[in-house]
Specification:
Layout (H helix, E strand, L loop, with lengths): L1 E16 L3 H8 L4 E16 L3 E6 L5 H8 L7 E6 L8 H4 L3 E5 L11 H11 L4 H15 L14 H12 L6 E5 L7 H18 L2 E5 L3 H7 L2 E6 L2 E7 H8 L3 E7 L14 E7 L2 E6 L3 H14 L2 E7 L3 H11 L5
Parallel strand pairs: 3-7, 3-8, 5-6, 6-7
Antiparallel strand pairs: 1-2, 1-4, 8-9, 10-12, 10-13, 11-12
Keywords: ATP-binding, Nucleotide-binding, Transport
GO molecular function: ATP binding
InterPro entries: AAA+_ATPase, ABC_transporter-like_ATP-bd, ABC_transporter_ATP-binding, P-loop_NTPase
Length: 332
């Protein structure tokens, strides 16, 4: 079952420019020059129930614009959107009861009242019964460790405390679909770990579908098997995270730590292998080939030199994405 179905989705914005000089300023009073810029450029996307999908890209790639259209905040210029079987911007009132949204830069909690009062107001907005609220939110409050925060005004919470409360607020009505836009921005490592653990739990327990946009790619690595990579409003990759490396980066890095100092002439010469010395007893081999070449390399090195340790270093997702944008790698 598809929770999100998007076909040829497009969103255009007008960029106005001013004419120079006094006469130009006068003409601008009556007519304006502008260009039409596509923020989202004819993308198609489907997401199944229970998936956790990372939606990533550089600033200005169109991530937030897409999320705003999927949640009904913005109306598309063209194309079709079906989310939870509804049109988000045409069936607004019914639709918002089926989604949860967390924007890292914006709050859905009332600033000057206690957190639990905000929760009670949202409970009424979403028409959640006392039984459902107590049953579901008891688990949420306990898992996110926000019980001691419920009597505090939101303005007295730290950023990490507020974000945990924001996440709880988005789940008061136990929505089947959760949109997270930079949910861990500015948070310390411990808070991030708590949020990631919680998201995994609700995904497993309730089959909650999660669409996550973030610049912290460690969040993507920890939570998402599938990633959608956006560039200039177009999807340039949609697939499994562990396959992105194979598409975007050739080869692996093999780190050899020897028991004694080793010179370059003591290391094997193989096609598609480049060596780099890290220190007197450590060398890095960059291998442009498959696992067979890596195995051959390790075998040849071990035969000639006593080694202390061997590590095969995978390239991080952040490095992969940087390489894609900097070098313009084409992804099939």
């Amino acid at each position: 079952m598809n929770v999100i179905e998007v076909q040829n989705l497009r969103k255009e914005f007008k960029s106005y420019s001013s004419r120079s000089g006094l006469s130009g300023a006068f003409r601008d009073l009556f007519t304006r020059n502008y260009k039409v810029l596509p923020a989202v450029d004819d993308i198609s996307l489907t997401i199944k129930q229970g998936e956790m999908v990372g939606y990533i890209g550089e600033n200005g790639a169109g991530k937030s614009t897409t999320i705003k259209m999927l949640t009904g905040i913005l109306t598309p210029t063209s194309g079709s959107i079906v989310v939870n079987g509804m049109n988000p911007h045409k069936q607004r009132e019914e639709f918002v009861r089926t989604i949860g949204v967390v924007f890292g830069q914006r709050s859905q909690l009332w600033w000057d009242i206690a957190v639990q009062e905000s929760f009670r107001l949202l409970k009424k907005v979403y028409r959640v019964s006392d039984k459902d609220y107590n049953q579901h939110m008891g688990h949420v409050i306990e898992t996110l460790e926000i019980g001691p925060l419920l009597d505090k005004p939101v303005r007295k919470l730290s950023l990490g405390q507020r974000m945990r409360c924001e996440l709880a607020a988005a789940l008061i009505h136990n929505p089947p679909l959760l949109f997270l836009d930079e949910p861990t921005i500015g948070l310390d490592v411990l808070v991030k770990l708590k949020i990631r653990k919680f998201l995994k739990e609700i995904n497993e327990q309730y089959k909650t579908t999660i669409l996550l946009t973030t610049h912290d790619l460690t969040d993507i690595e920890a939570l998402c098997e599938r990633v959608v990579l956006l560039d200039e409003g177009k999807i340039i990759y949609d697939g499994k995270l562990n396959e992105l490396q194979g598409h975007a980066v050739e080869g692996k890095q093999v780190e050899f730590e020897f028991l004694a100092e080793v010179q370059r002439n003591q290391l094997p010469y193989l096609a598609n292998v480049q060596w780099e010395q890290k220190d007197a007893t450590t060398w890095l081999a960059y291998v442009n080939g498959d696992e067979r070449l890596v195995s051959q390399l390790i075998s040849d090195v071990v035969k000639k030199n006593p080694i202390k340790n061997v590590r095969i270093n995978e390239v991080s997702t952040e490095e992969i994405v940087r390489k894609i944008y900097e070098e313009g790698l084409a992804l099939a």
